[in-house]
Amino acid sequence: MKKGLLTAAIISISCSSTVFAASCDDTRLHGYMENIKDEMRSMSSDVKSGDNESAAKRANTLITYFEKARSETPYKFTAENLQGNELKDQKAEFTKVVDDTIVVLKDLETALKSGNSSEVKKLLGAMGNQRKTGHSSFKANC
Ligand code: HEM
Fold first, then answer.
1. Which residue's CA is the nearest one to ligand 1's atom 3?
2. Strand ranges in the chain using DSSP code E only, listed in sequence order
3. Per-residue pLDDT tens for 113-136?
4. pLDDT at residue 119, rounded to an integer
């Protein structure tokens, strides 16, 4: 009986760890997003202190993170068990928003290098909008 209980406990522990391994804050995409958040914050500080050169480098780093994020699948799609064409369409929508975000970042890098501060302000606002669009469409509520 005791042995049976122990076996049950072991099975239950190993099963639950498998389930939690794919939880929503444990994805590669989530990791890239945390990097994006940190880099965005540092870029804003650079802009505020007038260090456009450093900010432009960060815009470039952000592009590389979004390029990596592009090939990931949002957890929401897994949680909703999307399959077939629905999954294909949603993935295409996701990569489109990522691509639009990369275009904003490329323009931002150019504006920072040329010191066009009104354009920089506009494009930082555009990044905020990309974030809103991306999260409202593809981020799970968890
Ligand atoms: C300035 C731009 C962005 C910032 C600072 C940002 C930041 C974050 C952060 C911190 C998280 C972790 C969860 C949370 O704390 O809410 C997250 C999650 C997420 N973000 Fe972003 N994000 C940005 C843009 C985007 C864009 C453009 C997309 C989509 C095209 C996107 C899609 C997602 C998704 C899908 C998750 C959930 C992670 C998962 O499904 O595994 N984000 N983001």
1. 131
2. none
3. 999 999 999 999 999 999 999 999
4. 98
Write the residue with the smallest CA distance to atom 8 of ligand 1: 33
Instruction: Quote the ligand 1 centre to 11 CA distance (angstroms).
Output: 34
> Which contiguous run of DSSP H or E holds residue 49?
none
Domains in the chain, CATH or no CATH each: 24-138 (1.20.120)
Per the CB < 8 A criterion, the answer to whether 20 and 107 are in contact is: no
Residues whose CB falls within 8 Å of the CB of residue 35, separated by 6 or more in sequence, listed in order: 65
- Ligand 1 centroid to residue 10 C-alpha, Å: 35
How far apart are alpha carbons 29 and 141 in whole angstroms? 15
21-68 pLDDT, tens digit each? 468 888 999 999 999 999 999 999 999 999 999 999 999 999 999 999
